[in-house]
Amino acid sequence: MNDSSWGAPQGAGFRGTPEMTAAPAGPVHDVHGAQQTRPMPIVPDVPDAGRDVGREAENRDDRDRDAAHVGGPLFRDEMPQEPMSTPLPPPPQKKRAGRDLRAAIGVGLGLGAVIVVSLFIVKAVFVGVIALAVVVGLWELTSRLKERKDIDAPLAPLAVGGVAMVVAGYARGPEGAWIAMALTALAVLVQRMTRPPEGYLKDVTAGVFAAFYVPFLATFVALMLTADDGEWRVLTFLVLTVVSDTGAYAVGWRFGKHKLAPRISPGKTREGLLGAVAFAMAGGALCMEFLIDGGAWWQGLLLGLGVAASATLGDLGESMIKRDLGIKDMGTLLPGHGGIMDRLDSLLPTAPVVWLLLVLFVGST
Fold first, then answer.
1. What Cα–Cα distance (Å) separates residue 272 from each residue in 158, 252, 255, 257?
2. In DSSP terms, which residues pair with 15 in a beta bridge?
3. Long-range contacts of range 4-13, CB-CB < 8 Å, 24 or more positions apart?
4. Extended beta strands in the chain, E state
5. Can you tell me where the transmembrane regions are (predicted)?
6. Pseudo-torsion of CA 163, 167, 172, 176, nearest 10°?
7. Is residue 352 within 8 Å of residue 217, measured between CB atoms?
8. Of 8, 61, 136, 338, which is least surrounded by CB within 10 A?
9. Segment 269-322, tens digit of pLDDT
């Protein structure tokens, strides 16, 4: 049985529900209508109270009948609701860089000018620039370890030993750098003995790690500088690292969709890595052909590939450290960049790679 079986006859002009549809006059329909009528409640014979209850029942029946005459529902919950408007999706937002690009570019150009001027005027001045960067980097790293993990890596022996490593590497070569590294580690062990033994192991472990991570890796830049064309080797190292980072940023920002290592650095993508490789290999071919004595373009392709790999791993490595520490940047010294360590993250592990490949391709002198 469908709804039309209960509908009003044509022309009745009634829009109620089937249950409320008025039926034609007749005995059968009168019985049905009687069954649909709400029975009056039985009220005890109490003065005033009975009359009030009965009057309320009559008023309720009147309201129901009035609602039925206009085709409306009997209950408020059955009132038709206007469809809720579906909120419009927010307009797509343009990709934005995570840092102040103007400040970052300005600071980058300033640092580049200092490096180039010191590199091509007096090599010893550039060695001093390396040593200064090492000391500031060690200060940032040990400060964050103390603040976030309560690890007290001794800064004094690290700073003195770090400067000694850079100078010894420039003056005595790899042997001098290794000796200075060993003495720095020993100084960290001894200096930490002047304080209570609680936390000794974690403090000295962090100290030895800091000595290797910052000054020892930076010493390979000084080792490049000792060659006859040392300034061009260092410039090649710096240019290729910057080109690799720029290629990764530009391509990843524009085309990046597939995450490279989301648990370590969510912003890095596989497309960005491909951009780093392409930019660094192209730059390496040009640098080896025009800047390095005895270099060949195909060697530059391999050099660029090595730079892209080591720079990316270095960036991920420091991102891992910062995630463990729960910080975004190692410092705030460089507007738009963070701290010194945030600029050294890809340079430090790339230095030994470039030094080794250049020694293999064109020799150490």
1. 35, 4, 8, 9
2. none
3. none
4. 259-261, 265-269
5. 101-119, 153-171, 206-226, 232-251, 272-291, 347-364
6. 0
7. yes
8. 61
9. 999 999 999 999 999 999 999 999 999 999 999 999 999 999 999 999 999 999
